[in-house]
Amino acid sequence: MAALLPAEWIKNWEKGGKSEFVQLCRALSENKNHDVGFRDIQQALYELAYHVVRGNLKHDQASNVLGDVIEFREDMPSILADVFCILDIETSCLEEKNKRDHFTQLVLACLYLVSDTVLKERLDPETLESLGLIKQSQQFNQKSVKIKTKLFYKQQKFNLLREENEGYAKLIAELGQDLSGNITSDLILENIKSLIGCFNLDPNRVLDIILEVYECRPEYDDFFVPLIESYMYMCEPQTLCHILGFKFKFYQDPSGETPSSLYRVAAVLLQHNLIDLEDLYVHLLPGDNAIIEEHKREIVEAKQIVRKLTMVVLSSEKTEEKEKEKEKEEEKTEKPPDNQKLGLLEALLKIGDWHHAQSIMDQMPPFYSTSHKAIALALCQLVHVTIEPLYRRVGVPKGAKGSPISSLPNKRAPKQAESFEELRKEVFNMLCYLGPHLSHDPILFAKVVRLGKAFMKEFQSDGSKQEDKEKMETLFSCLLSITDQVLLPSLSLMDCNACMSEELWGMFKTFPYQYRYRLYGQWKNETYNSHPLLVKVKAQTIDRAKYIMKRLTKENVKPSGRQIGKLSHSNPTILFDYILSQIQKYDNLITPVVDSLKYLTSLNYDVLAYCIIEALANPEKERMKHDDTTISSWLQSLASFCGAVFRKYPIELAGLLQYVANQLKAGKSFDLLILKEVVQKMAGIEITEEMTMEQLEAMTGGEQLKAEGGYFGQIRNTKKSSQRLKDALLDHDLALPLCLLMAQQRNGVVFQEGGEKHLKLVGKLYDQCHDTLVQFGGFLASNLSTEDYIKRVPSIDVLCNEFHTPHDAAFFLSRPMYAHHISSKYDELKKAEKGNKQQHKVHKYITSCELVMAPVHEAVISLHLPKVWDDISPQFYATFWSLTMYDLAVPHSSYDREVNKLKVQMKAIDDNQEMPPNKKKKEKERCTALQDKLLEEEKKQLEHVQRVLQRLKLEKDNWLLAKSTKNETITKFLQLCIFPRCIFSAIDAVYCAHFVELVHQQKTPNFSTLLCYDRVFSDIIYTVASCTENEASRYGRFLCCMLETVTRWHSDRVIYEKECGNYPGFLTILRATGFDGGNKADQLDYENFRHVVHKWHYKLTKASVHCLETGEYTHIRNILIVLTKILPWYPKVLNLGQALERRVHKICQEEKEKRPDLYALAMGYSGQLKSRKPFMIPENEFHHKDPPARNAVPAAVQNGPGGAGMPTSLTINTVRLEEGTAEETADKLKEKSQGVVKVINKTVNATPKVTTSNGNSASNSKIIKEKDDKEKSGKEKDKEKKDKTPAATPEMKALGKDGKDKPKEERANKDEKAREIKEKTPKSDKEKEKVKKEEKASKEEKSKTVVTIIESKSTAEKEREKEPSRERDLAKEMKSKENAKGGEKVPVAGSLKSPVPRSETSESEREQKRRKVDTHSSPSHSSTVKDNLNELKDSSAKHYINHTTPTLSKSKEREVEKKDLDKSRERSREREKKDEKDRKDRKRDHSNSEREPPQDSTKRRKEENGTTGSSKHSKSESPSDSPRLNEKEKEKNKSKSSGKEKGDSIKADKMEKSSSGSKKESRHDKEKTEKKEKRDSAGGKEEKKHHKSSDKHR
Known about the structure:
Elements: H1 7-11, H2 13-30, H3 34-54, H4 59-69, H5 76-93, H6 97-109, H7 116-122, H8 125-131, H9 137-153, H10 165-176, H11 185-199, H12 203-216, H13 221-232, H14 237-250, H15 260-271, H16 277-281, H17 288-310, H18 315-333, H19 340-351, H20 354-363, H21 373-395, H22 420-434, H23 442-460, H24 466-493, H25 498-508, H26 513-525, H27 532-551, H28 557-570, H29 572-585, H30 590-596, H31 602-616, H32 633-648, H33 654-665, H34 672-683, H35 693-699, H36 703-710, H37 719-731, H38 735-751, H39 759-783, H40 786-792, H41 796-802, H42 807-832, H43 838-860, H44 874-882, H45 885-888, H46 892-911, H47 917-955, H48 966-982, H49 986-1001, H50 1009-1018, H51 1021-1025, H52 1029-1051, H53 1053-1061, H54 1086-1110, H55 1113-1125, H56 1134-1154, H57 1156-1172, H58 1179-1182, H59 1208-1236, H60 1242-1246, H61 1260-1283, H62 1289-1308, H63 1310-1340, H64 1349-1362, H65 1365-1380, H66 1405-1417, H67 1419-1431, H68 1434-1438, H69 1450-1489, H70 1494-1507, H71 1521-1532, H72 1536-1554, H73 1559-1577, H74 1580-1593
Helix pairs in contact: 2-3, 3-5, 3-6, 4-6, 5-6, 8-9, 10-11, 10-12, 11-13, 12-13, 12-15, 15-19, 17-27, 19-20, 19-21, 21-22, 21-23, 22-24, 23-24, 23-25, 24-26, 27-28, 27-29, 28-29, 28-30, 29-31, 29-32, 31-32, 32-34, 33-38, 34-39, 35-36, 38-39, 39-42, 42-43, 43-44, 43-47, 46-47, 48-49, 48-50, ...
């Protein structure tokens, strides 16, 4: 804008500027456009004043001209005041002070132009003060504020009662009148409006008063709510909320307390949607952040409490801690600040406004609101109301009245639940908000649980539609959630309420255990961490549990039990978890804890079962000890506790049994320990290897006898607990699965679990698995009804073929079924016909047996290869496996023992003066009843046994078919029947021995008792080595019983003659076809039997010594166990006993530090052995020795089943059998041994490939070599015999034979060497005959095909003579082959020797010839022999000469034989001399050179295995030293040829004695020389034969 006041005017102010300015002002004021004129004048005046401020014009000049201008317009002073106002602002901002002074002076100069009031109005108070228009700017300001307040804020309405008391008085009277008449809210509203208008009342104040009155008259909801609603139409919507908020704020002082009436009013208004929760919520304190902070603080405090309780505090610190805690508690007791949000929430819940209450709860941390008791109770009350109709319909128990709860008057409250579906929609949500705080209302807790129970009843009843089922499923899962989130946590917070616990169990028992255990798991592991209160409770429970457990002893079980019970009602999981952790550490707590658990509720018992399973399944715990050889003690303690607690209390077993089954499915057998304990404690069935023979005997009787005399503890009161166990198994179908899993797991232990584990542990687990199976099977057999059993156990072929159950276990499970079946059929038949004769009964019994067993006979055929049934019939197989000791013999002595005990008891009762008469009577009655029961049972068993024996008598002819050979039959019998069963259980071991005796006594055709016993005793090393600890114990029992029988026969000629004399089992000629009554000469006579028994004892010694010397843990342990078991009958011979004693003593010394368990076993055995020493007898008393010194060498060395004086034909035949079956048995045995050798230890691995389960034949090379030896030696003997005088013939013959045999034997041990000198004697006779016969026959009919083994032998012997180099080569090859096997050590026992009979006889030649003729006279036999021989390689067949001797007359035979004998004698004499020279030389060489590195010794060992199989540790001595010396002396009396040999043996002995260091070498030297001699004497063809056959076997 252009300046109105030019600068020239100012410069020339006095001259013309002033006048110009005045004219301008006049012109402007006269301007018709008022607005433009006003602005221009303003500008003109401003510019003038501005020049003054800047100092261009003086203030008086300006004031003068302004005085002139002021009159031009009326409003000029006002315009000037405006200009001053603007300049005031501008100058106050300037920094130059002079400008401000100029301005002040101008205003002062113009004061006469503008009035004070206008200036006061427009200028700043500070300016006015500086102008002197006012005294103080501050006072002026205050005054102006007051004036403004008066002007603008003074109301026209009356806000307070005191202002217009009449109007408000009328209002209060209006609202406070009696509202019960026809007065409506609309009418009152009109009156209120008129009062407001008349008395000018403030409407907001009126609303406030309405609310105040409503607070005081809460019962008139129906009046006040519509009134307020109507009134609100006249106000702004927020007004009501603000007024309420203002009311709440009034109470927010620290000391204020909001009245509940205000909460209620606010709640009702919220419910009727008159205000918005969000609007009101902001007015309430404390803020949400403060609430969250408080919640966090509570959690931290809870954790601190836990830490304090778990920390170990020393007593001095304790007092300080307690003082601090007291102070803290005092602080806490000060009243917490008022929480208006919770107050409002409580009010909402009380009036039933669930919707808004839920919104408030959602704003807070979970369970924070309900952790306040008032709110929890309010919510509980709301739930009470909501569930009332449904609870009255389905939840009230019979006979209970209950107190009905009236519904809320409020129509907007939640709908009451009439059905379970509504319950889910309405109530479950409320309960979830309640959470653990349902504990405040136990009655509601009980109601909810009862509703749950009612629902489960409906849920489990069938017949609903598919949609309904789905709904029910949803409901069920909701119920489980409620249980998990509400019921169980609430129970934890309840104070020891056993009724609630029982109430809850009422519902829980309807859940399957899987759901229950899941709930317990959540409760134990998660719930307690979800809420600070629960965290504290957990800590306190543990603290209390520690306190109780520290003081728990056997003496204070009752009071402690009460405390435990009290604690367990609310927090069982935490308590039991702690108790179990203590039990795992201290097993002596088990008994007091079990006794103290009697005050638990049913729910607690169930929780205990869960806790036990959880503890067992704890993945962090190792199931074996650090040494990896034993099961951990915590597992043993838990198992023991399980058994005790499940027996004593009614705890459900399903979960535990299923857990064991699942562990077995997973291939873990550790947990079988639990099943074992549970069955033992609940059913009273013990499995222990430590049973005495008396107990074992009692176990073969009836149930009553078993209970009285069979167990260690008297089994009482197991009826209920065994019934519970049975029900659990049947209800959950676990009986058969557990059996099958255990049966399968036995092998799983070895082949799946066993890989990494220590051998000892594998054995323990195997035993545990097996024992548990036996125990569990026993439990099922005695507790399941016939129907249950038969329904559950499938047939034998299904068990074995489909379920892959091992045969022994399958028969074990099926056996009770057959017995039940037969007895029930028998009873049916008895009822059908009333015939009472014994004959009829037996006939019926046999019929019922046939009916039951026929399908079994069919079924067993599929279990084995068809080849098996050539030798034994399926009927025999099934009979063997289906019978038990109960069927074979009555334990009369056991019955007598128990009856006598009862008589003694009754006498004691009579003598007892202190016992009251009525008790006496009762006890006596009990004893009498028991006695009668036992006698009745004995009678019943006696009848049963007689029936069974009748049945066996009828069956026996079809038992053994012997289509191949008797040897093969025995092999099958041992392999498929005896061995698997004798190690199954202690009673089975006894049964097997009895069964063998029974088969013998029944005169069963084709059964050679002699062979059977021989095979059992001959080679026990493999069987012993492959047993576990418990199996070894059972095997020992079996051997013990077998030895008992043998010893009985050995003890007295009369007994022997009576029980064996004319029995087919003791025939020495084993014909292939039927037994024709037997020639007396075919029987083994008593003296020869004694020789055989001595041989068996010797074999046992040899095997035992070998096992003891292997250094292998399993061998040593098992043989010591077996030896301990057979101690009553072995050793009987002094020198054998001494040999054993030395070895055991050595073990004691060696193992003392290394393996204490072996040391303990050895010491135990050693002590018992010493105590038996007085009962041992010298060898010559044990079996008769011939008077000549030469024969005095013990016969025990022999390998054949016949003793020294056994008839030739027995020898011959057994040899024949052996040869015939060599290959077959090798293969079969291989199969068998693979099954039998469970514990695959070094020794067994190292043995040559054919492992014999029963010691039938071992390394094939050895078998064949022995044959060869025999043949060879036979020929040599024949030569010698011819050279020598007839008088010396028998002995010389024997010598001749042994001249060859000896080297082989010596390699094994010197003993044998000496003994075999004796063997030679009888053998030579035999060979004489052989040679004669063979020569004659060969001349006559070389082309015929009937081959007898005798002949084959003699021809083989001749060939040996002709081809001396053959055997040397053979031995070399054997050696190289075995070395090629990897140089493994082959510690095979002496038992490896095949039982190739080398029995020799000293009978007259005539008798022998007669026997020979007998042998040949059986064409069928010859043909079988021929077949068997054909199995040997063809090369060997060339050398057998075919005979048809039966056509020759006896006299001719004799002549031929005599000639042959003479020739052979000469030959053998010469050869022997040569041989012995060579031997001596070689011995010398070797003794010098044979200090070889260990490799050589292993070679040597292999060679020994290959030939005699009696390898030992290099240090070992031969099994009996003392006999060796005697033998030497006896040998001195022998002929020259034998003298040389004797010299050799003495030398060797001396060398052995001379230095312990060279023991090893000297024996090996001797053995080597013998080998070489053998090689020299053998021929090339023989080698070929040997080669082939050994390859075949290998």
